[in-house]
Amino acid sequence: MSSTLVIITDAETEPPEFDLAVEEVYQTLRDVEAPADAKRDAALKCWQLAEHRSKHIERRRQTRIAGYGDYPHVGGLLLDCVVYQDVEEVQWRALRALVQLAYDNAEVSWLLLHNWVKEARVLVKEEDKVLAELKEQVKKDVANVDEKLRAQFNAQKEAVGRMKTRPMGPAALMSVMSDARTTSWRVKECAFHVANNMANSCWEAHDIILKDSAVKSACTVIESKETPDFVISAAVGFLCSLSYRPASRKTMLDQLVVPALAPIIRKDQPSLNSMSAVLVVANIAGHLKAEQCPAMTKDLQITIKTISAMGAALARQAFGGRYGTIWKVTLAVSALCDGEHNLSLLASNGAGSIVEALLQEPNVNPIAQEHACKIVLQLSFEPGTRSQLNKDAPQLPNILTSVMSSGMTALSRATAEAALGALQLPPALPPTDPEASSRNNHLMISHQKAHLQHAQCLAAAIRKEGYKVVMSGGEGTHIVPNLSEGVANSGLTMVLLSRELLTSPLSRAELLVAAATSRPVVWLQCDDSVLPGPEGWMDTLPKNIACGAAGAALSIAMTHLGYDALSDSLQPRDAASIFFAKVVEVVSRYIVPQTQSEAEKEAAREAAERALMAERVAQTERVTREARENVVKDKVLEESRESTPLSVGRKVPLQVLIDMKVDQVKDWFSYNLGLPQYGDMLSRNAVDGLLLLDLTDEDLYMELRIEDPLHRSRILRALNDIIGAEESRPGTQNERAKEEEEEEEEEGGGGRG
What's the DSSP call for residue 203? Predict the structure, then answer.
């Protein structure tokens, strides 16, 4: 019998001396007349205050310190020291404090990246009024004006000027790279470490970093013959962190990162972080041929070095003089697989056996699992690499079958199914309603993320005509293929032809399923310039489902239709109406509209699902509200010793949290945090109370796929509350300090410094 667990925690607390110390730091940093030595000591104190052996207390303190005080707060004042101070020791100490504040903390990284610019713009209007009043006072009697008043006017003018020109965080950090400033190498190194920690902690903010001059500054430093190795290493580590986000890669490629890193890769020196440079190039340019990226020469050996690094990471061995995280290296190998010219080299260098071993890991990272399945899928398309894969990894079919049924994410499960199909071992189709199966009575719409809204509008228009529509699934930022239930059992598959589709192995898998099950295909051309060329995987499709000059499948243009968010429809309206009518006419050739009985059953099923979800949400809100109002009656949880001996609504000691089982952690997420949607992911990762306490912001994002930064912040704050209450008890802090181990980041990241 499962129990409902509601935990009410104390507010965040710190000892009084901590707040006094932070206040002293704040006052010193904001004092324009404070000597350089005082500011240096304040930055050092800030660094020390933000450190703690407990990750959760450390994260709480980082957030508290960074946002402490009035505008521009402690975090902004430290960035101001970087921009406006010329004393090297002050700059360096301020940057070291920023390294610590941003370490593994998405919330602080987000604040520092924005550098309170919006707050500055709001305050400028008020400060301009003060400046105007001071100016009038000075004008009244220029000859006899008080020097103190003049100094006040000048200080106010300078402050307003700084507010108006306040830079974003990356621009503030990269200001130390300017030739106009005399900056030491250790200051430049430290600036890259801060930027690296920001990029590592907060993927959502990569666009801010890419818009500023950070990438260009890193390339300039790397290419300079005067730059010492330790600074190059820091710059390469920063670029490596940026390259793991797929959306960042095109911009990095356009900013000539590959030519800048090529000499570093050739030198192959741990002191230069050469292995991280290899991973950067694999991520952003590994799919390109030599003529598309001349800097990607054969002597760089990107493919061989990357697959070797994956094997080393899986074996927990150092590569390139450093240790690496398996999911990061797997991402790089997956990026290489997007280039068909790399596949034979990857297969001949043991990619199959490495991926087979990775997928058998007991606690494999979800991202590593997803991309390992994608690697198998890519290698399975071509006969030569498929044969090598079967030889090197004979257990892969069984492993993929297991992942298909119990993979950590929907994308993992769907990609494993696609890989089995590409290996020519497709799983048996799931049982369906006999009447529906005989008529194949639904339309399958295959699309990419860029045209999700187009697909949704199309589906809505077709459903209005009485037809059943199934689409590619969605999970977070990913589009998940719908193979067995979607394509194989469809009466017709419509494919939105876009640039993304031409490079999508999952779309290729959907089309191969359509070919294998003799499903008809109709193409909807989204872009004028996108048509299959003489090369590429689309040229290998059977003629009856291929489009273009060599294909026989029907193609309908929708190139002049755009999605309008305000009306949630395709526009212009008249053109959209004509397009929908044409599509419905084509659908009617293959699919019979649902009968009234079928439509009613479908509507009832969807309504039941919506009602169940609404009830779950309402229950979560109701229980949480009652608990917070302290009106929930105590109810002792009636379970054996394996359950947690608590009462609903009571405050929870740390030891009780540690003893929680997986189901109780799920209850805590649902009823205390109001986040029931993550229950399945907690179960798949077997997150109990002890493991929960060790999770970092990066773990929540990468391992549990909690992409909403506010949700991650809510989870971490709740954990910090519980630990804070325990830490406030006399004698507990020293005890825990002996028990906890401090983790050091040994790969090419900024770390704590």
Answer: G
- By C-alpha distance, which of 128, 127, 202, 118 is closest to 168? 118
Give, in degrees to the nearest 5, the angle at Cα 447 between 444 and 450: 155
The two tokens of residue 273 are 């972080």
Whether the Cβ atoms of residue 100 and residue 50 lie closer than 8 Å to each other: yes
382 closest CA partner among 345, 435, 427: 345
Asked if 709 and 63 touch (Cβ cutoff 8 Å), the reply is no
- Distance in angstroms between the alpha carbons of the first and the last residue of the chain: 48
**Cα dihedral 557, 559, 564, 567 sign:** negative
74 and 108 Cβ atoms separated by less than 8 Å: no
Neighbours of 38 (CB within 10 A): 14
Tokens of 181: 């400033």
Q: Read out DSSP for 530-568?
A: ----SSSGGGGS-TTT--STT--S-EEE-TT-EEETTTT
Q: Which of 74, 157, 164, 156 is nearest to 119 (CA)?
A: 164
Task: Write out 674-705 in H/E/C secondary structure.
Answer: CCHHHHHHHHHCCCCHHHHHHCCHHHHHHCCC
CA distance 727 to 590: 67
Predicted structure pTM score: 0.70
Q: Is 492 helix (H, G, I), strand (E, B) or coil?
A: strand
Residues 719, 668: Cα–Cα separation, whole Å? 11
Instruction: Identify how many contiguous H helices and E strands the chain contains and give both numbers.
Output: 37, 9
Given a contact cutoff of 8 angstroms between Cβ atoms, the answer to whether 740 and 53 are in contact is: yes
Residue entry with tokens 């200001």: 175
Q: Give the CA distances from residue 526 to residues 561, 576, 678, in Å, rounded to whole numbers and listed in that order.
A: 8, 13, 35
Task: Tokens 């993304």: give the residue.
Answer: 500
- Which position has the token pair 């207390």? 57
Burial (0-12, 13-18, 19+ Cβ within 10 Å), 329: buried
Cα–Cα distance measured from residue 511 to residue 505, given in angstroms and rounded to the nearest whole number: 10
Q: Please report the domains of the chain, with CATH numbers, ordered by start residue.
A: 442-593 (3.40.50.10140)
The letter for the amino acid at 386 is R
Closest C-alpha to 214, from 178, 184, 166, 246 = 178
Distance, CA of 492 to CA of 475 (rounded, Å): 24
Instruction: State the sign of the Cα–Cα–Cα–Cα dihedral 373, 376, 381, 386.
Output: negative
Which positions of the chain have pLDDT values less than 70?
A: 1-12, 120-121, 123-131, 133-135, 137-163, 321-323, 428-440, 473-479, 527-536, 548-550, 602, 605-606, 609-610, 612-614, 616-653, 655-656, 724-753
Instruction: Report the amino acid identity of residue 328.
Output: K
Strands 569-571 vs 562-564: parallel, antiparallel or unpaired: antiparallel
3, with CB counted inside 10 A (0-12, 13-18, 19+), is: middle
What is the C-alpha separation between 288 and 340, in angstroms, rounded? Answer: 9
3-state SS, residue 256 = coil
Helices (H), 629-752: 654-658, 662-667, 679-684, 689-694, 697-702, 709-727, 732-739
